[in-house]
Write a structure and sequence with these properties.
This protein has helices at about 60-75, 110, 115-140, 175-185, 205-210, 230-255; strands at about 15-20, 25-30, 75-80, 100-105, 105, 145-155, 155, 160, 165-170, 190-195, 220-225. It has about 260 residues and is α/β, with parallel strands linked by helices. The strands form three sheets. A seven-stranded mixed beta sheet has the order 1-3-2-6-11-9-10, sandwiched between helices. Strands 4-5 form a two-stranded antiparallel ribbon. A two-stranded antiparallel sheet has the order 7-8. Strand 9 (about 165-170), helix 4 and strand 10 (about 190-195) form a beta-alpha-beta unit. The model has no long low-confidence stretch (mean pLDDT about 95).
Length: about 260
């Protein structure tokens, strides 16, 4: 089957959504899996409609958390609007899991049948513009900044329950992670994961290693369990919590 020279058509959304800062803030918020849009030319990738409601398509609840957090903090928020099934923007270009053939038991037929050129177009028209926009935001800042990557995780994956309420993922910037782990544990009512439910590495993730770790910027990658933020009440609760804790993290980070 011959594919068109471009992936995105005139009716498809741009690859990222920017909520500009409304007040000075040291934080740049990013959300790699906030959306579940699919380019019209890809149809539904052969994925049943019910599966587009599942965590395999996006980070459930994190768009609501990000928007509410941005409104409280006034920080810039950059969100990816396309589904992680189209191209996972938290994976390096060419990463074997960036266009999954199977995700938590669901076959992604459109990815399995895709030509190599289709991967290149997804990277060129979705992944790279998103990351270019993040890089542009960081480069424009004159004052110190911290990159805060917002994610959510499913309560059950591959038949295994995950009991954590929230996880802090880290690799090089262990100081930032330990400060936030301490702050979250001080809440008293949370089960907090240290590099759970995932471990952050240079190859497992892309956004934090590429934009923050490579430049020596402080950073946090936060994972919130999806059943806690499935509705507006939970999303606002977590946004308010993070809006309270992030300034404390920033203050402790700069204490001698």
């Amino acid at each position: 089957m011959t594919e068109p020279n471009t992936l995105l058509g005139p009716d498809d959304p741009t690859p990222f959504r920017v909520h500009p800062a409304s007040q000075p803030s040291p934080f740049i918020l990013v959300s790699d899996h906030a959306g579940r849009a699919v380019p019209g030319r890809l149809g539904n990738l052969g994925v049943p409609m019910a599966d587009w409601e599942r965590h395999i398509a996006w980070d459930i609840g994190i768009h609501g958390v990000g928007e509410a957090l941005q409104k409280i903090l006034g920080a810039t928020l950059i969100e990816q609007v396309y589904s992680r099934l189209v191209i996972d923007c938290n994976r390096a270009p060419g990463h074997p899991t960036s266009m999954p053939f199977v995700s938590d038991g669901t076959d992604i037929v459109g990815n399995r049948e895709a030509q190599a050129a289709c991967r290149a177009r997804r990277e060129a028209e979705i992944l790279h513009p998103y990351h270019d926009r993040i890089a542009e935001e960081i480069a424009a800042r004159k004052d110190p900044v911290a990159l805060i990557a917002l994610h959510s995780f499913t309560p059950r994956m591959n038949g295994v329950d995950r009991h954590w309420h929230v996880g802090v993922l880290h690799h090089r910037d262990t100081r930032s992670a330990h400060i936030m782990l301490e702050l979250l544990r001080e809440e008293g009512d949370l089960c907090v994961g240290d590099n759970e439910p995932y471990v952050l590495t240079e190859t497992s993730d892309y956004t934090v290693p590429h934009h923050a770790e490579a430049a020596g910027l402080p950073c946090l990658e936060l994972e919130i369990r999806q059943d806690l933020i499935a509705d507006t009440v939970g999303q606002n609760e977590w946004a308010e919590r993070l809006a309270r804790l992030l300034p404390q993290y920033w203050e402790r980070l700069h204490q001698k």
